[in-house]
Write a structure and sequence with these properties.
With 487 residues, this protein is of the alpha+beta class. Helices cover 35% and strands 28% of the residues. The protein folds into three domains: 249 residues, Bira Bifunctional Protein, Domain 2 (BirA Bifunctional Protein, domain 2), CATH 3.30.930.10; 100 residues, Rossmann fold, CATH 3.40.50.800; 70 residues, C-terminal domain of ProRS (Translation Initiation Factor IF3), CATH 3.30.110.30.
Length: 487
């Protein structure tokens, strides 16, 4: 356990807050609910962003940027969609301030004719533009993504997980047919699954949201759901089939191949900085972060152990060819020359979750070796200098696989298939996922939520409701679903 960090077993929420701050990821901004992402946290986001952006582009999408400010009248055009965000919207009413008696006040003469909304999401402004850009089937599909910030006025906030302003990507696509839109939605969900599992080492459940849990204004919503170490669910990415709702609201039509006018079909989808919270809570321990190697800002940190300047010079000379080999292998490596004790540095980089620590002292140089310590297991090994590049390459792969296996086992061991509501209530209180039958009614879903605090996370793609009964009503199950308490 690291000094000043609350143990997970004592208070998971306090542990999370301690780690975010002590690992130098982020801190609260001056305005309540805002977040300052510090350089180490932003480097982590940059690596996640790069991995996701590459997959988005490889699948045929392009990036663009749309305005932060949205006319209020745009939001009124899609009532169902806006209803989901109305209470969270930040509203701009004036254009300037003025000085009065040494204070700054809003200039009443600068009142806007129409209030402006700070974007909570960009569907409305994007579809206003798509109306201009789409005329014919030749203009489709339109596959655009943007990396941006959004504002949703949250009352209860937690760094990365829920903040008033956060960073994300939001994709918005337009298609000629319902089939194409559905295929797009599922394609993106698979990209999100790959991001979580192949880059972040987080196993996820994939499936469709229920009517109650789906995105406001969507025909249906798909999501990836991850289990955190406190056994709660975290929705980590969503993909929405919007049908023709936004096309109808903004009158976006196109001439099809038969020269007939049709409404286009739409999708939207997004992953935010919340996924950093998932990385922290899926892998972290009482010593701090344990970062997946593919997105860690530093994959290897080198701790030189020296007593004087002469030893430092010798270590630097010894290190140079090692660093060159690692960098030629695209390994992100950082050498810590700070004037602190080795023990301090060990604890600091353990807190920051660097996958591999390399220790080099005079005795190691004499033996032409280094000492490697794995953050995931704590195991230490001595490696000959000539073998370092190959050893580290294999070790980074093994660390990813080990983190993924640990998280997978944890999710499997805490996922319960049951048929008794009494057992349901007990397990939900203890924490974990419950896989069970559900009669498909919103009434039952709401009663379970009211009585237990659990929500449906997904209707999994591999559901098999045949022979199952609803956990609450005892009626034949329409779906097999995953229930959990969630962030």
């Amino acid at each position: 356990m690291s000094k000043g960090v609350t143990p997970q077993s004592k208070n998971f929420s306090a542990w999370y807050n301690d780690v975010v701050k002590k690992a130098d990821l982020a801190e609260h901004g001056p305005v309540k609910g805002t977040m300052v992402i510090k350089p180490y946290g932003f480097a982590l986001w940059d690596n996640i962003k790069y991995a996701l952006d590459s997959m988005i582009k490889e699948s045929g999408h392009v990036n663009a940027y749309f305005p932060l400010f949205i006319p209020k009248s745009f939001l009124a055009q899609e009532a169902k969609h806006v209803e989901g965000f109305a209470k969270e919207c930040a509203v701009v009413t004036h254009t300037r301030l003025k000085a009065v008696n040494g204070d700054m006040v809003v200039d009443p003469e600068s009142k806007l004719e129409e209030e402006v909304i700070v974007r909570p999401t960009s569907e409305t402004v994007i579809w206003a533009m798509y109306k201009k850009w789409i005329q014919s089937y030749r203009d489709l599909p339109l596959l655009i993504n943007q990396w941006a910030n959004v504002v949703r006025w949250e009352m209860r906030t937690r760094l990365f997980l829920r903040t008033t302003e956060f960073l994300w990507q939001e994709g918005h696509t337009a298609h000629a047919t319902a089939k194409e839109a559905e295929e797009e939605t599922v394609t993106i969900l698979e990209i999100y699954r790959r991001l979580a599992e192949e880059f972040l080492a987080i196993p996820v459940l994939t499936g469709q949201k229920t009517e109650i849990e789906k995105f406001a204004g969507a025909e249906h919503t798909y999501s990836i759901e991850a289990m955190m170490k406190d056994k709660r669910a975290l929705q980590s990415g969503t993909s929405h089939n919007l049908g023709q709702n936004f096309a109808k609201a903004f009158n976006v039509t196109f001439q099809n191949k038969d020269n007939k006018e049709e409404m286009v079909y739409a999708t939207s989808w997004g992953v935010s900085t919340r996924i950093i919270g998932a990385v922290i809570m899926a892998h972290g321990d009482d010593k701090g972060l344990r970062l997946p190697p593919k997105v860690a800002p530093h994959q290897v940190v080198v701790i030189p152990i020296s007593r004087n300047d002469e030893q430092k010079k010798v270590i630097k000379k010894y290190l140079n060819p090692i660093l060159d080999k690692l960098k030629n292998n695209s390994v992100r490596v950082n050498v810590d020359w700070r004037e602190e004790s080795p023990g301090f540095k060990f604890n600091d980089w353990e807190m920051k979750g660097v996958p591999i620590r390399m220790e080099i002292g005079p005795r190691d140089i004499e033996n032409n070796q280094v000492v490697l310590a794995r953050r995931d297991t704590g195991e230490k090994s001595t490696v000959q200098a000539n073998d370092i590049a190959d050893t580290i390459a294999k070790m980074l792969i093994d660390i990813h696989d080990n983190l993924f296996a640990e998280a997978t086992d944890f999710m499997k061991n805490n996922t319960n298939e049951i048929d008794s509501y009494d057992e349901f209530k007990k397990i939900i209180n203890d924490g974990g996922f419950i896989r069970c039958g559900w009669d498909g009614t919103s009434e039952t879903e709401l009663k379970i939520k009211e009585e237990t605090g659990a929500t449906t996370r997904v209707i999994p793609f591999d559901e098999n409701p045949k022979g199952l009964k609803c956990i609450y009503t005892g009626k034949p199950a329409k779906h097999e679903v995953i229930f959990a308490k969630a962030y």
